[in-house]
Design a protein that fits this description.
Layout: E1 75-76, H1 83-87, E2 110-111, E3 121-125, E4 134-136, E5 142-145, E6 150-153, E7 159-163, E8 169-174, E9 180-184, E10 189-192, E11 198-202, E12 207-212, E13 218-222, E14 225-229, E15 236-240, E16 248-254, E17 260-266, E18 272-276, E19 288-291, E20 305-306, E21 312-316, E22 321-325, E23 331-335, E24 348-349, E25 360-365, E26 371-376, E27 388-389
Parallel strand pairs: 1-3, 2-27
Antiparallel strand pairs: 3-26, 4-5, 5-6, 6-7, 8-9, 9-10, 10-11, 12-13, 13-14, 14-15, 16-17, 17-18, 18-19, 20-21, 21-22, 22-23, 24-25, 25-26
Length: about 400
């Protein structure tokens, strides 16, 4: 049946042993229950009321888990830190540090004509918690929300509290100075330091997407359209309002050369938009239609992740699928989890270090006890610094 995020209740469970739930929740249910400690995932209990967190505060973005069937994803405890074996990619470079942070030989060539057309594998990663946003630190810790606090975990499942009491939030991305930006639950864009500090960059943003652009500014996407914010001083520039007919602009990702931004949407026949930029990051086009049919019915695009070949990976809430869109606009289902509870509500690339596969997307699963699943794509991210051949041309 068609599901709406207006009725998302009783979904979210926290990590045992990380019980600090002092943060107010306005975006989901912080009920408690077992974490993923085996190869079996557990569906969220169905509910018909408005979601509340552990303090009883009502949520604002909701969905119906639509059943209590058990999931089928298996847990992965691969602690092999040999990134060449994990990713199939030589992660060294003859000149020093590459995008994975390792040193060694030349990076392997990526042949875009030979990359997989569907997900290579999927594995539940024991330890990390994920609501809507994730980041992976240089020392190998994945940071995500358990609904009450930010939790950090190694790939091998060593878990600890990172920042208590921040509640739910939306997407995250790294800033040039080593902190990360986070659309927090109170509507602000905040700076989170690796020392656990929290500083508001700009209040009253109320956006879902947060993506750091090639210019080091944070592009926020939500009900108010697209704006960019200088993380050093909070200066904000509105770029585009949400176009007529769209419920919301929702997520964003940049092409490998940084000249084009792809925008995921809500509520318009699976439409993905784009805007082109010049070298000064001034828009050179209006918001234009890039592809349609990315999703089912009134789509809900919860991430736009871009690979080294320029392909887009877009999870759609209403179909529960992850779609791939080529640079020329061809659309196909890349991963169909088969159960709503396994839907990946976001997507971030692995680093190629400490077990995090550089050729995989890590997707938070808020409807599966706030777990994280590794989806092996078979190609690295748009920030890959090695040679790339046979890319499909971008649609003009």
């Amino acid at each position: 049946m068609t599901r709406s995020k207006a009725v998302l209740a009783g979904l979210l469970l926290f990590v045992p042993g990380c019980s600090d739930d002092s943060g107010a929740d306005t975006d989901g249910n912080g009920s408690t229950g077992p974490s993923a400690t085996s190869g079996q995932t557990t569906a969220m209990p169905a509910s018909t009321g408005e979601p509340v967190d552990s303090t009883g505060a009502p949520g604002s973005e909701t969905a119906d888990p639509d059943g209590t069937a058990e999931g089928s994803t298996t847990a992965s405890q691969d602690t092999d830190t040999d990134t060449d074996a994990d990713t199939g990619t030589d992660t060294g470079t003859s000149t020093g540090q590459d995008e994975t942070g390792t040193t060694g030989g030349m990076l392997e060539e990526v042949d875009c004509a030979e990359i997989p057309q569907t997900a290579v594998s999927t594995d539940l990663i024991v330890g990390p918690r994920g609501y809507h946003g994730l980041v992976i630190t240089d020392d190998g810790m994945m940071i995500g929300s358990d609904g009450a606090s930010l939790i950090q975990s190694s790939y091998g499942g060593v878990v600890s509290l990172f920042v208590p009491g921040v509640g739910y939030g939306e997407q995250m991305d790294w800033l040039p100075d080593g902190d990360f930006a986070y659309n927090t639950d109170d509507g602000a864009l905040s700076r989170i330091g690796l020392d656990g500090s929290v500083l508001v960059i700009q209040s009253n943003v109320y956006a879902y997407g947060a993506t750091t652009g090639p210019d080091g500014l944070v592009y926020v996407v939500g009900f108010n359209g697209i704006s960019r914010i200088d993380p050093s001083n909070g200066n904000t520039e509105s770029l585009f309002p949400a176009p007529q007919g769209f419920q919301e602009l929702h997520s964003m990702g940049f092409s490998p050369d940084g000249t084009r931004a792809y925008i995921g949407t809500i509520g318009q026949d699976g439409t993905v938009l784009y805007v082109d930029f010049n070298a000064a990051m001034d828009p050179t086009t209006d918001l234009e239609v890039f592809a349609t049919g990315v999703g089912q019915g009134s789509n809900w695009h919860d991430a736009v992740a871009v690979d080294a070949c320029g392909n887009l990976y877009i999870p759609d809430f209403n179909s529960s699928n992850m779609y791939r869109v080529t640079p020329g606009g061809t659309v196909n289902v890349f991963w169909a989890p088969g159960q709503f509870e396994l839907y990946g509500h976001g997507a971030v690339w692995g680093t190629g270090q400490d077990g995090w596969n550089a050729e995989a997307l890590y997707v938070p699963q808020p409807y599966n006890e706030l777990t994280v699943t590794e989806v092996v794509v078979g190609v690295p991210s748009s920030k890959y610094q090695g040679p790339v051949v046979n890319p499909e041309p971008m649609m003009p």
